[in-house]
């Protein structure tokens, strides 16, 4: 909880908010949240104890906190704060589930297939199952953008340390 | 026989207090009354009335053939029947009342009424921007009518009815392109169902397809795949790959964490550099400021001077990692699509 308070203290004041692309704002927020959190992690625990889960937790927390204007971030925050052992959304994807080829259903029930895929997509998005289809499709766009920016931020952080 | 349309009911409903729903109900009632009253008298008339809601091509042709016979008798009445509701609505309605009652024009009136019905039912869902929509709609409806009228005038003989029906259908389809204002207006093409459920369905489907198009632009490699299922597949795979990538990077970070020596300021410098190199035109603009981390000397207004910008570019010691810059640059370019709210 302390970590969250520290994270929340970092605020971004845009002098001219219209001129700054939202991607810029997001990456700033993200790095500003994540890096101090990681440092704190370092300081608090012994270096041997920093396990992957807590880092993952921090990563997701930073994502959720830097994209608070979107619905999925609220769901993500809920999930993170409610669960002690961070069962985050990405853990489900670590199985590498790929879409299985449906050999039998090619010709017929195309709508059913589409429904299946939409449901699959809903599972990927945090909180996607509680939205309806239209809303979910819109949120997926934002989520994808934020994920992309997150990967860039993480890559830069990792590269700086190596 | 059709004078019964002008009932006291019509006049009483002309108050502006009547909301759109009631108006629609009233309108539908009127239509049903007309249908019921004329059902025994003239089956052709019934067909004409049901024409605008039907998908039937043969019906279209038969109604065209009967059209000129019944046009004159039918003419004045739909005008009066729908009169009061027209006063309550704007612009386009007045056109109806000003039409000359030729048999040729009656067709235009029919079309207009059917279009109005559709727009009425679409209005029920949205309460905003009524006037603007109607003004733009009037242009379209006039266009539609002009084209159908010219078509009908061009073909005088009965033998051309089939050809005329085809061409008028095509022109009306071409003219009544779905004109989207924000997310509101759903215009149905000729011969499609006009009841509220199918309209709602169609509006919903169009919203969804619009969002799918936006997703297509975002997800790389999505444009080559046709069909919604394939696209959804691509999107799902992309999201999953992004998530696994993030997980991998966080694993790496966890592994490297003890050696985390980087300073926040360096990252910010890099980001600022990227920001300025990406948008050279905006170099005088003031970027966002981290309050807790004093980066650059700020003047009283809290803005960056140009001199400071030059300073930042010369003082950064580490070479900016190429991958960061190129990737973020490409993303910034694509992010001009913005966050789609």
Automatic annotation (TrEMBL), chain A:
InterPro entries for this protein: bHLH_AtIBH1-like (IPR044549), IBH1-like (IPR044660), IBH1_N (IPR059002)
What are the Basic and acidic residues biased-composition ranges? 99-115
Q: Does the keyword section mention Transferase?
A: no
- Cellular component, GO, one term: nucleus
Please report a single Pfam family linked to this protein. IBH1_N
Q: Name one GO biological process term.
A: regulation of DNA-templated transcription
Question: Chief localization class?
Answer: nucleus
Q: What is this protein called?
A: IBH1-like N-terminal domain-containing protein
UniProtKB/TrEMBL annotation, chain B:
Task: Report the residue ranges that make up the BHLH domain in this protein.
Answer: 192-242
Family annotation (SUPFAM superfamilies): HLH, helix-loop-helix DNA-binding domain
Entry-linked SMART domains = HLH (SM00353)
| Keyword match Transcription | yes
What Gene Ontology molecular function terms does this protein carry?
DNA binding; DNA-binding transcription factor activity; protein dimerization activity
Q: Which UniProt keywords apply?
A: DNA-binding, Nucleus, Transcription, Transcription regulation
Compositional bias annotation for Basic and acidic residues:
131-152, 167-179
User: Know the name of this protein?
Assistant: BHLH domain-containing protein
What phylogenetic lineage does the species belong to?
Eukaryota, Viridiplantae, Streptophyta, Embryophyta, Tracheophyta
